[in-house]
Amino acid sequence: MRIGVAQISTRAGDFAQTARQMVECSERAARQGVDLLVFPMTALCGASSVGPVDREGFLLDLAGCVLGLAEDLACPCLVPVLTDMGGASVPDALLIRDSQIVPVGLAARIEAMAAAAQSEPVDERSGTLPELELAGARLGVAFTYDDLDVYVDYEYDVDVIVFLSGYGFAVDDPSSALGTSLTEGRFMADAEATGAWIVGVGSLGCYDAQVFCGSSFVLAPWGELAAQAPSLEEALLVCDVDPSAEGPLEAPLTPEVYDAPLMTWSALAAGLAGTVRQLGAGGACVVVDDTLASMVVATLATDALGPTNVGVVLAGEGGPAAELVRALRIPAANVEALELPGGGRGGSGEKDRALAADLAQARLAALARRTSRVPLGTLDKTGLALEERTFADAARLHPLADLYRSDVFSLAHLRNTISPVMPAAALASYEVPDVEGLAEALGSDETRLEFVDLVLSSHLEWELPVSDVAAERGHAGLVEAILARLREVDSRRAGEVRAITLSSRTLAEARGPVGLAWHDVARPEEERLAGRLSALADQVGDEGDDGPEGEGREAGGERESHEREVRDLLGYLRDFSAGGGFSPMGGSDEGSGRHGSPGQGEGPQGPFWDGPFSEN
């Protein structure tokens, strides 16, 4: 069969314009003999659904758009949508051909329910994913990493798996970059494990603060790359897929070497440009001083929007900040100099620096209002997690707010290899959060910052408890101090900042209950849950061994009973906790982040539970 991928950038919910784009793509694909044209997950509905109050009207208009597409599309198409099921937003895909519309995900679930009603119960995941015949091939459709795992683990007889990725680019998840990161991601292993062609369909553009980089691809079952679309560009990818082929391909492509900093910079620039357009502005403006963060943001804005669309409040005359503005070729008419009290950032004291920051933000707000540009801030994830803001903030967007500070340094070094616009002095100055014991435990500022960010990312993105972080990183007391500081700042953080989402779990998604007095500590292995259960079992077992014949079996039963009671109690507490199976928010088997867990969609599992319900 000949399959096509329409890698297009759209505006979510702009049904009329998007439908015109889709019809035009289908006409081009039909001229190339495409048997099935696949559109990206975000094309019609974006990355997330509308709120409950608007859902009825949205779905009605979506249905009208789909009915029009059924009449106008020039070839069979797979069109992803977000549907409503029990008040929740659920991804599905509509197979549209010969003016007929089939929701493939819903159809698969209905068939599975009908089969279960007529036969013995089977695992609920073994028959709920789509299998459909088209152009001599059997197709499966996956929406998440978990869906791909099901195709791997269960008996699905499919020749091609279409992966409609709804994951925005995340620094901690190489697979989210799709074809650009095949050497680092999961998809080659998926192709070999399933024995099926993998068609990765990447969305393109900025949706709901997430950036989608395109880079759609087609992988042969034996792991060779058959076709790939470019990153961050619209494209129509067409590839012949032969279910009977056993390889090798006549002309396979060589997978790219994944460059995470370069991909991150490109995604940031695309996200900044997309967000500025969404806000209806013609450009951006930023305060530039001698800090590296301000220089990175100014350089990023220039790359994303062009120097003529960037305004600058230059804090202090001369120096590294002025050198950067000249190197970026920002027009002099776009630059406003700000004379700071106390001689600038290095003034006579803390009060001078605070006043300077407030004055700079006031001038930034005035410049943004006068020029109709978006004011940009310089906060990063490390600072938001561990440092309290003590200045007025005029920024409507903080492009770096979902990136750790050590990643910002890596981006600065990368950008300077392209053209050295940032002064060397700024690249050598590390601003490390003030955490008790940090300076004494680690030698250099660079080492301290890297350690802080590793602890934060292990806890926030990878969702590791304190004990696991301490076991993996060492310095248990320092790990406790960093995470205690995170909780302290979290409870006092002044509102949320608008950011470009670049991780699988943002600070807002990781936030715990405000005012909770309890906090976890790093515990030795024997004091953790598994260790205590093992000790309890050993204790009961030893008591049984010392008794008369027959008592050992009774003690063994008692040991199992003790273990089961502890498991049931913990399961009960878990199910009724926030996010548990019986809580008002409900449970989820995909983790609390948008990507599930980083990388493979399988994060660290608890010791006992496989689902949202306990063994009880």
Model description:
This protein is an alpha/beta fold and 616 residues long. It contains 19 helices and 18 strands. The chain has helices at 15-31, 52-72, 104-118, 145-153, 187-194, 260-278, 292-305, 319-327, 350-371, 381-386, 405-418, 424-427, 438-441, 445-460, 466-473, 476-492, 507-510, 529-546, 551-575, and strands at 2-7, 36-38, 77-85, 88-97, 100-103, 132-134, 137-142, 160-164, 197-201, 204-207, 210-213, 217-219, 225-228, 235-240, 284-288, 310-315, 335-338, 374-376. Strands 5-4-3-2-1-14 form a 6-stranded mixed β-sheet. It has a 6-stranded mixed β-sheet with strand order 6-7-8-9-12-13, covered by helices on one side. A hairpin with a 2-residue loop joins strand 4 and strand 5 (100-103). Helix 6 crosses helix 7 (292-305). The two termini are 49 Å apart.
Quick recap of the structure?
The chain has 616 residues and is α/β, with parallel strands linked by helices. The protein is 41% helix and 15% strand. The strands form 4 sheets. A 6-stranded mixed beta sheet has the order 5-4-3-2-1-14. A 6-stranded mixed beta sheet has the order 6-7-8-9-12-13, covered by helices on one side.
Radius of gyration, in angstroms, nearest whole number: 27 Å
**What is the CATH topology of the largest domain?**
Nitrilase/N-carbamoyl-D-aminoacid amidohydrolase
Superfamily at the CATH H level of the largest domain?
A: Carbon-nitrogen hydrolase
Largest sheet, in brief, is: 6 strands, mixed
Short key terms for the protein model shown above:
single chain, 616 residues, alpha/beta, Nitrilase/N-carbamoyl-D-aminoacid amidohydrolase, 3 domains
